[in-house]
Amino acid sequence: METHDAAVFKRHIRQYIGVFVALLVATVLTVAVSYVHFGAEDSHVGNVTVAMIIATVKAALVAGFFMHLVAEKRSIYTMLATTGVFFVALIALTVFAFYDSPGSHDALKGGRVATEAVAHGH
Q1: Which of 38, 50, 86, 108 has its CA 20 to 30 A from that of 14?
Q2: Do 33 and 53 form a contact (C-beta atoms < 8 A)?
Q3: Quick one: pLDDT at residue 84?
């Protein structure tokens, strides 16, 4: 029985070391990608998108292995998905409310901040 426990323990240690190495590689990749410009000349949208994809993979590794979510039952994934849906819905409501405020469309079309448009009487 001790041999079986030692084998399981060694397997888990190898798994944790593998995840640690993957996180190190992803961190080096994040730094390397930060020196490359993606997208339009004056926009950082591409860089932020690539960084968020790498960060999502790293978060999934941490949550899956270090927090032991890979061994959880199906109900935990249902709760996680529900949380994600509500998070996206609340962010969407915030963005919609921001762009629904009076005068925001006129100021944004001209490339000016809303307070500048009001100050200049536009």
Answers
A1: 50
A2: no
A3: 92
Element spanning 104, H or E: helix 104-109
The pLDDT, as a whole number, for residue 41 is 78
Q: What is the DSSP letter of 66?
A: I
pTM over 0.90: no
Angle, vertex CA 29, rays to CA 25 and CA 32, nearest 5: 140
Beta-carbon contacts of residue 97 (< 8 Å; ≥ 6 apart): none
**Residues 19-50: pLDDT tens digits?**
999 999 999 999 999 899 888 877 888 888 99
The Cα–Cα gap between 102 and 71 comes to: 50
